[in-house]
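tool=predict chain=A
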Amino acid sequence: MASYLGLKSLGIFVLALAFGIQAAQGKISCENLNKDSCAFAISSSGKRCVLEKHVCRTGYEKYSCRMSEIEAENLKDWIETDKCIKACGLDRNVLGISSDSLLDSHFTQKLCSTRCYGGCPNIVDLYFNLAAGEGVYLPKLCDAKRANSRREMSEIKSSGYVAPGPESGFKPGNFMVAPAMAPY
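tool=predict ok
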């Protein structure tokens, strides 16, 4: 039993050492991250990592970490801390990410908290861009959340114009907007 615990401890130490060396060298590759460090990580190329689940024919679930095409603003080689995951009300085992979470008042309360908004730039950048994709300015949403939680929903619902559909005859170039930068 003692030798098993010794081998297990040695294995954990070797993995931690390898992971620490990889992070220290600035060579984070999404494909080399495990399930517990993938979500909310950023590779050395600045692309965000995403956790994927594959179900085998036998019903066995296998998780893999892949690099997405989404780039993080001014961040590279980043594995989000457990402290920020908790402060922002997130789950490290999330599969994909959606702006729908911005409609959840419990989530936005944590996202806009001083601990998250003021201390977790990776998560703020991610949700800033998700909100901007929906026409919502995250600082304004957080201000509304702090001022009046009922006003928060109206900020989301009246967040801006909706681009016309393909049948409307408008040219898409008239509706192009430069992406906003997340506040730091």
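The first strand starts at residue 47 and ends at 55. Helices lie at 2-24, 35-38, 82-87, 105-111, 114-117, 121-133, 138-147, 149-157.
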